[in-house]
Amino acid sequence: MAEAVNLNGVKVMVIDDSNTIRRSAEIFLVQAGCQVVLAEDGFDALAKIADHHPDIIFCDIMMPRLDGYQTCALIKKNLRFGTTPVIMLSSKDGLFDRARGRMVGSDEYLTKPFTKDSLLKAVAAHMPQRVS
């Protein structure tokens, strides 16, 4: 189903300390036509967001230095990037984790391991509206 959506040129940032997760997300997104920016943790991401202006950000929760909740909160408090959709990625699927994600401003919560379809559906759902 997600294949029907045109994701060409959508700039997606994937923030995760796991190289495996970053690479698999990158492969799925590139196959769908997205431009992908990868970051290893929150600090790395915050430096790259200003340079790359992603349309959508996927953010892992459990990361060293700056966790996903802190990273999301900082993105959402920034005037230039506060409207950028942030989708939390986590292997924890508890109600508390989802609620905490909402409290810091996340737009969606995706459980790992994610499928290509769930990743692309999330991008399509939060994609900036295209003017035809």
Q: What's the level 1 CATH class? A: Alpha Beta
Physical arrangement of strands within the biggest beta sheet: 2-1-3-4-5
Averaged pLDDT: 92
Overall SS class:
alpha/beta
Beta-strand proportion: 15-25%
Description:
The protein is α/β, with parallel strands linked by helices. The protein has one domain (about 10-125): 3-Layer(aba) Sandwich (Rossmann fold), CATH 3.40.50. Helices cover about 40% and strands about 20% of the residues. It has five helices and five strands. The chain has helices spanning about 20-30, 40-50, 70-75, 95-105, 115-125, and strands at about 10-15, 35-40, 55-60, 85-90, 110. It has a five-stranded parallel β-sheet, with helices on both faces. It starts with 10 loop residues before the first strand and ends in a 6-residue tail after the last helix.
Which characteristics define this entry?
Rossmann fold, alpha/beta, globular, 41% helix, 132 residues
Quick summary of this structure?
This protein is an alpha/beta fold. The chain is 41% helix and 18% strand.
Q: What order do the helices and strands come in, and which of them pair?
A:
Elements: E1 11-15, H1 19-31, E2 35-39, H2 42-52, E3 56-60, H3 68-77, E4 86-90, H4 95-103, E5 108-111, H5 116-126
